[in-house]
Write a structure and sequence with these properties.
Order of helices and strands: HEHHHEHH
Radius of gyration: 31 Å
CATH topology: Protein Binding, DinI Protein, Chain A
Structural class: mainly alpha
Shape: elongated
CATH class: Alpha Beta
CATH superfamily: Skp domain
Strand content: under 5%
Number of helices: 6
Largest sheet: 2 strands, parallel
CATH architecture: 2-Layer Sandwich
Oligomer: single chain
């Protein structure tokens, strides 16, 4: 008695399809690549230029903050030395003045850090967009199927970061290798 089972039929059909797919994948070369974005952010000329631009843009504010912090520290130390000889009202007034100056300083420092982080993110986003265009260009030219930017482990033979950096830094001839 031959009993037809749809369940067995589907299992055999899935097995056959899986074997066909495995044979097809083995017959074709599947190319995978990896790009180290940390290296791109450190070594690409556009990333280095962005860093210089940010330093120039924020150096005066940073210098002013350092000077303001040093002045507050100096005033605070002077207050600590003179506090025992001051009247209660003078001590309270100077203490309030120090607290106000410190609050202003902390606010300016916070604003500076927020502005710097926002600008850094803008600049790095531009570098990343350029890098992604170059990665796509290299991937298409060299027939890669997948390019990864993060992985737990990558064999060095799959790392195309050098090729991407060469293109980004203007050495297109070396990228074709």
């Amino acid at each position: 008695m031959n009993h037809f089972s749809w369940s067995t039929f589907y299992k055999q059909l899935i097995l056959a399809a899986t074997l066909c797919l495995a044979n097809t994948v083995q017959a074709q070369e599947f190319r995978i690549g990896f790009v180290n974005t940390d290296r791109i952010f450190r070594e690409a000329n556009t990333a280095k230029a962005a860093q210089v631009k940010l330093e120039q843009e924020f150096s005066k504010r940073e210098k002013d903050l350092v000077e303001q912090g040093a002045a507050i520290k100096s005033i605070s130390e002077k207050f600590e030395r003179e506090a025992p000889t001051l009247s209660e009202s003078q001590r309270v007034a100077r203490q309030k003045q120090l607290v106000d100056q410190d609050r202003d300083f902390q606010r300016k420092r916070r604003e500076f850090q927020e502005d710097l982080n926002a600008r850094k993110n803008e600049e790095l986003q531009q570098v990343l967009e350029r890098a992604n265009r170059v990665v796509k260009q290299v991937a298409e030219a060299e027939k890669y199927d997948v390019i990864l930017q993060e992985a737990v482990y990558v064999s060095p033979k799959h790392d195309i970061t050098d090729k991407v950096l060469k293109v980004m830094n203007g050495n297109n001839a070396a990228a074709g290798r």
